[in-house]
Design a protein that fits this description.
The protein is elongated, with a radius of gyration of 19 Å. Helix content is 31%, strand content 26%. By secondary structure, the chain is an alpha/beta fold. The strands form four sheets. Strands 11-10-12-9-13 form a five-stranded mixed beta sheet, sandwiched between helices. Strands 7-3-8 form a three-stranded parallel beta sheet, sandwiched between helices. It has two domains: 7-149 and 253-294, 3-Layer(aba) Sandwich (D-Maltodextrin-Binding Protein, domain 2); 150-251, 3-Layer(aba) Sandwich (D-Maltodextrin-Binding Protein, domain 2), CATH 3.40.190.10.
């Protein structure tokens, strides 16, 4: 999730206006964000649990910080506050993880579809940006599960275009570049439209999710789909201009992106999450962002 963001006012409502997980950025509606968020952890080892500092890669240990690639356009999971500070559920949770290692976190905004490549090439120590764990990604990197989310659709209030998620053929649908919704979900739906002799779905593919949300609010798209926490947050933020379409489906875990060679580090992150869960920090962090319904207990490397 890449560069910076701006805000867009549509119909008198502050709408997240840069794109979903890509480049360019936007402010993430600071008025509704829970307080006490920080773009870096303190670097002071938290008490309790095993000593994990020995599992840090040499580069991280020397720098005393973990550099993380993040698409800061995906509220409430990760977004920009005040135009420059990365905040959100993922930020708070991993800052707590980093404290178990006694290091800080340097959150680096990046294009969503560039983060895994950045981790592979050493630009980032980790990638954290609501990455759904799937087979393709596990071939490229190690993934540490920490949360569970599904896909959800949204339309304008009242669904004036009569959108049906299972039959959106011929409709205009906004979706973010590089997401599982675009790469896994949409091809199946397009194939179904073709098999039924119906026109294909007109996709509006955006670099960042907040751009897709703005497209829907502004009438450039008939519907959008994204991860469930993000869609629910967008519905809340637009003060009744959007509504949920159908139910959440295809639930799957999010994963921290860790280099393939750093298996020991990945496993140590699992131990850190387990410790946070035992002490209650894990659940309270999710509750702070109204995301505790996605809590898991079976943290694992490449589940």
């Amino acid at each position: 999730m890449a560069v910076l963001r701006r805000t867009l006012v549509l119909s008198g409502v502050l709408v997240l206006a840069a794109a979903g997980c890509g480049s360019n950025s936007l402010e993430g509606g600071s008025t509704s964000a829970p307080t006490n968020s920080s773009s870096s952890s303190s670097g002071t080892p938290s008490t309790g649990g095993p000593d994990l500092s020995g599992a840090l890669p040499a580069k991280v240990k020397a720098a005393k910080k973990i550099t993380v690639g993040v698409d800061a356009s995906y509220p409430p999971n990760e977004f920009l506050q005040g135009g420059k500070t990365v905040v959100g559920m993922d930020v708070d949770l991993f800052n707590a993880v980093a404290q178990k290692f006694g290091v800080t976190v340097d959150w680096q905004p990046a294009g969503f579809d560039t983060i895994i490549t950045g981790v592979q090439g050493g630009k980032y120590d980790l990638g954290i940006s609501s990455f759904t764990i799937n087979a393709k990604r596990k071939q490229q990197v190690n993934m540490v599960s920490y949360f569970n989310a599904g896909t959800l659709w949204a339309t304008a209030k009242g669904n004036p275009k009569g959108i049906k998620a299972d039959d959106a053929c011929g409709k205009t649908v906004a979706v973010q570049k590089g997401t599982t919704q675009l790469e896994d979900d949409m091809p199946k739906r397009q194939a179904a439209c073709k098999a039924a002799g119906k026109p294909e779905i007109k996709l509006v593919v955006r670099e960042k999710q907040d751009q897709a949300t703005a497209d829907l609010v502004g009438g450039k798209a008939d519907a959008m789909l994204a991860d469930s926490p993000v869609v629910l947050y967008a519905i809340k933020q637009t003060n009744g201009q959007l509504e949920q379409l159908g139910d959440i489906y295809d639930a799957a875990p999010y994963g921290y992106v860790v280099p393939k060679a750093e298996t020991a580090f990945a496993q140590a992150i699992v131990h850190a999450l387990q410790a946070l869960n035992t002490e209650g920090t894990y659940k309270s962090t999710l509750q702070k962002w109204n995301n505790d319904s996605g809590a898991i207990t079976d943290f694992a490397v490449n589940p």
